[in-house]
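Trying the structure run again after the queue cleared.
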Amino acid sequence: MGQAEYEAFKAKLREWMEAHPEEYAAFEESMNTRDMAGCQAVLLQAIALIPQYRKLAAAKANEGLFDHVDEIEQAAKDNDLARKLIGECEQPVAGSPVPAMLCWLYFGKSFERMVEHCEELRRSPDLGYFQKITMSATIRLLIARSIKLRLRTREEWKAHREAMRLAESDQVLDWAMEESSSDKNDSKRKPGRPGTTRSLTEMFAPTVSRPEELRRRIGTYLLTRHTQTDIARLKIALEELRYLTLPIPIKPFRDALQEEYGREIRIVHERGIQEAYSRLTEPLLAGKAVRDRGTEAVTIREIKDFLSETNSFNSSEPAAN
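Done. Tokens:
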């Protein structure tokens, strides 16, 4: 599959997620439970698509601390797995988990959940050394493969490892009471000392005639809507209204919100905002982005209406379509 075909395939998956939010949410939930129901469904699907999968997996486990699954990957090629999966996405069979499974693998916390499941099994007192060695090798392979495919970075895995360690420790309350790095930076900043980045009002376009009112309305919005998706929608709305001097990257925009509203509102990390912004703005196969369709389009229009107050902030704002 070439790069253009790969990107088109990913766009098709995102289009499926947009059209089937409940099916995807149900699959993701099944993969998050401890009863392994979702994992069992994926295993059965693998056996159905690659008949010799069970035998190959058992043989691989007998190798001990294996560092590759070349035999299984070759069997996938021999059984034309890629074509079968694409076919099930283009003409999905009712009840098939394949579209949701692929969306989860590409866009969900798939590698993290698989590593967590393996780690839970590895720690189980019901498993012997053979199974624990197999789980150890699987964890290493999952992490290595995710990095090689550029779906995760080594730094992201280090952060996830620390999160897992924290969750298992007795230090959660201490961690919860610690100041965040942004709070510490705020406390160290001397009164009257100029910031190193642009303020929020400095990011407003020159044609915004009432910057203080716009700043107040953004704050009102963030009081109740401050998830990563909420902030991504806010940025899109401001851009579509032409209230920002373009281009404004995610990090300085997030930092400006933190500087302006961080004492009253918890502003999420820029990485989450970037992921949500990319999801909303990435073009689908039909040409439009997620933000231009369905409930997202309605939500962003409502934000624009709230911010614009009948176009009183910006004299050059285009009329609504």
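The CA atoms of residues 19 and 203 lie 35 Å apart. Worth checking whether this holds up in the mutant runs.
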